[in-house]
Write a structure and sequence with these properties.
The structure is a homodimer. By secondary structure, chain A is α/β, with parallel strands linked by helices. In chain A, about 40% of the residues lie in helices and about 15% in strands. In chain A, the strands form 2 sheets. Chain A has a 6-stranded parallel beta sheet with strand order 2-1-3-4-5-11, with helices on both faces. Chain A binds a DNA duplex through helix 2 and helix 4.
Amino acid sequence: MKNVTIRALAKELNLSVSTISKALRDSYEISEETKQRVLEVANRLSYTPNPYASSLRGKKSKNIAVVIPEIADSFFAIAINGIEAVVKEKGYHVLICLTHESFENEKAILREFGSGRVDGVLMSVSSETTSCEHICDLMDKEVPVVFFDRVLDEVDTDKIVTNDFESGYAATRHLVEKGCKKIAYLGISKSLAISNNRMEGYKKALADHHIPFEASDIVLCTNDPAYNIEIVKELLQRKKRPDGIVASVEKLTTTVYLACNELQLVIPQQLRIVCFSNLEIATILHPSLTTITQPAFEMGKSAATVLLKALDKKNNGQPKKQLVIPSTLIIRGSSSI
Amino acid sequence: MKNVTIRALAKELNLSVSTISKALRDSYEISEETKQRVLEVANRLSYTPNPYASSLRGKKSKNIAVVIPEIADSFFAIAINGIEAVVKEKGYHVLICLTHESFENEKAILREFGSGRVDGVLMSVSSETTSCEHICDLMDKEVPVVFFDRVLDEVDTDKIVTNDFESGYAATRHLVEKGCKKIAYLGISKSLAISNNRMEGYKKALADHHIPFEASDIVLCTNDPAYNIEIVKELLQRKKRPDGIVASVEKLTTTVYLACNELQLVIPQQLRIVCFSNLEIATILHPSLTTITQPAFEMGKSAATVLLKALDKKNNGQPKKQLVIPSTLIIRGSSSI
DNA sequence: GTGAAAGCGCTAACAT
DNA sequence: ATGTTAGCGCTTTCAC
């Protein structure tokens, strides 16, 4: 079966292509009766417009890209659901682009977007990303970029974040209040604002509670789970080992629990844990995991909403905003008995 | 900054557009020297071809769609990584389309694909899907569809599955061998082949081990976690309650563990559990979870590879194949002490 | 109220 | 080895 085009409809109805086009777009120039006939035939032949012809002609693709480090992290998986819920409504499509935490990948992906493939971009930068030229280049081409979660402060654009500093603070304070005297912080990047903000919150909480901060209590994890386990075990075997841990990303949950198992450390009696995580199964871990739960779905929804607004040419020249949606500390067994 | 087109390059170099086009595609008709000059200028002006013009012209989009029920399930999240790894290599893009287990959504999504938006489709049907017209309609339009995981038997196309029957059998036999006398099966759909195959394996294992099968031991779960908990609790409070459970999908893990917590049932002493799951955190559950782990990444990779092959017109008229990649029973604490 | 025609950016068949 | 040109399917002036 050949693809049915607007021309086929025109022939079928003995009308011109432009009349068909206008009828389909419900133009006021076309009579009700004609519109009806066009619609009827379009349906009968199950006509669907060629998106590429429209895009080429109209200079817009109805695609938006979601550029994220990985997808098998429940924060991003849930956020995508939020994004999708919003953009689908407006007839947009979601292109998922994974950087796998690589700056090179991220640059290559954005470079591709310079020629209209997508109308806009929602992104969370890779853990390696420290500069923003690739993003600014894209924005110079009038492709709006909205950051969510992992933002780059120096780029002047809309951002949807959660209260990382306060969450880091809250997590740490909670551990202090539970009696921890020496709290370690597991990060994933020296440069990521998100990681640093959480860490600053951590430091501030220590300071406010007169607990000396030691640089060696900051441990930088990697993408390699095996390596992470080793350094966490090393951390937990030090002469003066921590009695509390704030883990700044979800995937470190497994690392910490496994390290404790191997070292036969009892959670929370010997080590209290708070993890930034959206894992649904936090409740059934043993002990259940105290989490800082990010509003993943809402962040995705907001990011998409803001992007769609930016795409609407009417709303231009608006100053860029940063929207903060708070996370929640959910206290469970890993930090308190 | 205006978008740089092939025409701009032509003007810059005093060449014709076709020369540029050919040079960029490394045609043998063009001299090495010219190619170099074109490449240099293209780079300098950071030219990127307009994908929609190419698509419109060439009748192919370099997009493939991944149609899946949800993304916040680690099987699908991991599978996407496998898919992406393969198609990225060939310059394809991945369009993620979520059905949210709704047949209506699934139909609407496929209908859209009738006009060239995507060159091919990888899909796992929704739990509501029982008929295949929407899929056949698309295939009639020469859009290849490859199934993975949740297939529709009646559609004659390539399929990548895992050994569901054998896995259901293995899970059940394992529980029998551990001494279970009454084993329940948690399904999610009456119609899904995947769910039924696993169940048939379960039934066969019971029969082979002379354990009477009771229809009431089959419990159909839904998309509503709260409801699921209730029916599982009901199951576990029956006069003759099961001493083993085979849960056929990942999201039921939380359900079962929570139900046991609430009822103060001790796993595995009072109830042994095997769950179909790719959750990395299975190891740190308490007790750690015995799983049937599907080869999610490999299935994604294979599905993508097969689709790309089908997209390559040279390989046409090949008979459709079904590829089975086995799952693995990983025995952990939830089924044995 | 309807139609003719130009053109979005690219490719390829067909000149030269 | 390079250039000319038609056309992919659609939208949008502009004309009738």
